[in-house]
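Contributing new records

If you add data, match the layout below exactly. Sequence lines come first and carry their own label; structure lines follow with theirs. Keep one chain per record. Anything else will be rejected by the validation script.
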Amino acid sequence: RISARLTLMWVPYQEVCTHRWECNAALRRLAGETLVVLKGLTMKYLVTAAGGHLGRLAVEALVSRGVDPSDIVAGARSPEKVADFAGRGIAVVEIDYDRPETIASALEGVDRVLLISGSVPGARVAGHENVIRAAHAAGVDRLVYTSAPQATTFDYALGADHRATEAVIAATGI
């Protein structure tokens, strides 16, 4: 036989934020003072290279899984390639891995990043590092990178770029 006693206690709560990045400071401010209920907490996702085939599929997958379009950022070197997303309520931003000023602004308010690998072998690590370091500085919780199979354990021509990128990710702790 299982029995339980349920005690109800009415406590005032204060809604202090709706996005995780707003909550960190508010939680520190209110710690120990009141019960904080995080309801309706949202995540903001940045999909890089959203103008390409994989990027488009990733954006569509987020939408089909129920992510609110306003919580998705579609990033591309050429924003006109993803302009159709804007009509559906998805934010469209310019992001060029080799132009750090576009990266920082694309990451504003973002919690999770899908970093789709650049397409020029031998020249992509620096751009990947720009995105990873900016994501770390912006407080991104999770970064998913489209690497290659066994990039850290198997030596092959295309693996070097992915191995180097994965090392940068590991060093940041994202």
